[in-house]
Amino acid sequence: MKIVAFIVLLVSAWLAWGAGSLHEKDPINHTTTPMWILGAVALASLVALFTSKSTAKSRG
Predict the structure, then answer these.
(1) To bridge 42 with a disulfide, which of 1, 13, 19, 57 should be the other Cys (CB 3.0-4.6 Å)?
(2) Which ranges does the record mark as transmembrane (predicted)?
């Protein structure tokens, strides 16, 4: 679960940054809505990353 949340965090943060960059370059044709949605996905995956418990069992 943590690996998936980390990958989602990286991808969505990267795409949010790209959407923000597109908005800065051409604000008439690119709104900030995709940036905010992807930022919310990144935040949710960050919360999932820190609140999920590891399911691996120790050998012993």
Answers:
(1) 13
(2) 34-51
Q: At 2, list the tokens.
A: 């943590």
Tokens in use for 22? Answer: 């597109």
What's the CA gap between 7 and 59, in Å, rounded? 27
Question: What residues have CB less than 8 Å from 46, skipping those under 6 apart?
Answer: 5, 9
For residues 20 and 4, what is the distance between their CA atoms, to the nearest angstrom?
A: 24
pLDDT of residue 59: 67
Amino acid at 48: A
- Measure the N-to-C terminal CA separation of the chain; round to a whole number of Å: 23
- Spatial contact of 19 and 34, defined as CB atoms under 8 Å apart: yes
